[in-house]
Design brief:
This protein has 150 residues and is mainly alpha-helical. 59% of the residues lie in helices and 0% in strands. The protein contains six helices and no strands.
């Protein structure tokens, strides 16, 4: 398999995971007053992170294992960077870590809604620069083998 084909395959897997995070955040937000807002914000951040990593993968850019969206965004070269506000990246970054642990401040439902809207803006901006063929591509499902089966 050519490296470009492999990069497209991995990028499609990142996109599929990002879409799952977006779906999870949007579905959870429907719980309204009972909504675990930290979960919505975490999945919103994860959606944006995975879209940025899909784009970096497709472009053959190395990136560290990080949840820092601003750091990922700076790895995109000028002219190849989607139009994403740095403030959007910074806002979502904190949801990857700080809000997931005990002692974090409560997140209001309105803030969770804003986080989801921000993730959708980032998704739209990244998808605008991705090849249409990649967006139509289905990520290959990897089925783990079961012990004892051939």
């Amino acid at each position: 398999m050519r490296s470009a084909d492999r990069a497209a395959e991995v990028a499609a897997e990142w996109i599929a995971k990002a879409e799952n995070d977006l779906l999870n955040a949007a579905h959870t937000l429907k719980l309204a007053a009972r909504c675990p807002t930290d979960t919505v914000c975490f999945h919103a951040q994860q959606c944006a992170e995975k879209y940025l990593k899909a784009l970096l993968t497709l472009r053959g850019s190395d990136f560290p294992k990080t949840h820092d969206l601003e750091a990922l965004g700076t790895r995109l070269r000028n002219g190849l960077r989607p139009s994403v506000a740095p403030d959007d990246l910074g806002t979502l970054t904190r949801y990857a870590t700080v809000t997931r642990y005990p002692g974090a401040e409560e997140i209001a439902l309105t803030e969770a809604r804003r986080a989801l809207a921000t993730a959708r803006r980032i998704r739209k901006a990244v998808r605008a620069v991705l090849p249409r063929t990649l967006l139509r591509r289905k990520a290959r499902q990897r089925v783990p083998s079961r012990p004892g089966r051939k």
